[in-house]
Write a structure and sequence with these properties.
Number of strands: 7
CATH superfamily of the largest domain: Lactate dehydrogenase/glycoside hydrolase, family 4, C-terminal
Order of helices and strands: HEHEHEEHHHEEEH
CATH class of the largest domain: Alpha Beta
Distance between the termini: 22 Å
CATH architecture of the largest domain: Alpha-Beta Complex
Number of domains: 2
Number of helices: 7
Strand order of the largest sheet: 5-6-7
Shape: globular
Structural class: alpha+beta
């Protein structure tokens, strides 16, 4: 299925579930991992607005799988432990809206431009790579579960008072011309404590952001 096919199925499911949340647990942290996240987060926001309980600091699009993949692929190329690699991934959660910010990777890594372009493309299309590997019989499952767990544990840690918890997530945003955009977020007891923004981007990454804008909007 394409993400557009998914939209027809998942949009209604997400609208129904978030309506129940808006009625019965309006203060809850809402973490949406159902694709297409670029669309299901705006849907969630509108449902909460309709019920008069919208708080943009408590609605998260879980894009962590993109970060996990970026960390893994960079680690493989550089012979590093993926658990110790951190690549911020900004933008959205589909195709060219997925923007790995390899220039901000810790530890610092460098790639020649052709390898960087190929690596970026692989991170953007990793979901399709899994579907092809499973010959269309399924999509990413274990890695998706791992990514969802990582994000939720980070959020729970922050809610329980742990300081300095940062995760990227697709949220309501003033950082770019797109009303929703994923950037690193400082998490806290009330959800988003602070949006840390895009940071310094390389010219290559700036071009990726501008190319993603139309689709994100």
């Amino acid at each position: 299925m394409t993400r557009d096919d998914l939209f027809n199925t998942n949009a209604t499911i997400v609208a129904n579930l978030t309506e129940a949340c808006a009625k019965h647990c309006p203060e809850a942290m809402i973490c949406i991992i159902s694709n297409p996240v670029n669309s299901t987060i705006p849907i969630t926001s509108e449902v909460f607005k309709k019920h008069g309980v919208y708080n943009p600091n408590r609605i998260f699009g879980v894009t962590t799988l993109d970060i996990v993949r970026a960390n893994t692929f960079v680690a493989e190329l550089k012979g590093l432990d993926p658990a110790r690699v951190n690549v911020p991934v900004i933008g959205g959660h589909a195709g060219k809206t997925i923007i790995p910010v390899i220039s901000q990777c810790t530890p610092k890594v460098e790639f020649p431009q052709d390898q960087l372009a190929a690596l970026t493309g692989r991170i953007q299309e990793a979901g399709t790579e899994v579907v092809k590997a499973k010959a269309g019989a399924g999509s990413a499952t274990l890695s998706m579960a791992y990514a969802g767990t990582r994000f939720v544990f980070s959020l729970l840690d922050a809610m329980n008072g742990k300081e300095g918890v940062i995760e990227c997530s697709f949220v309501r945003s003033e950082e770019t011309a797109s009303p929703y955009f994923s950037t690193p977020l400082l998490l806290g007891k009330n959800g988003i404590e602070k949006n840390l923004g895009l940071g310094k981007l390389s010219p290559f990454e700036e071009k990726l952001v501008s190319e993603a804008m139309d689709e994100l909007k």
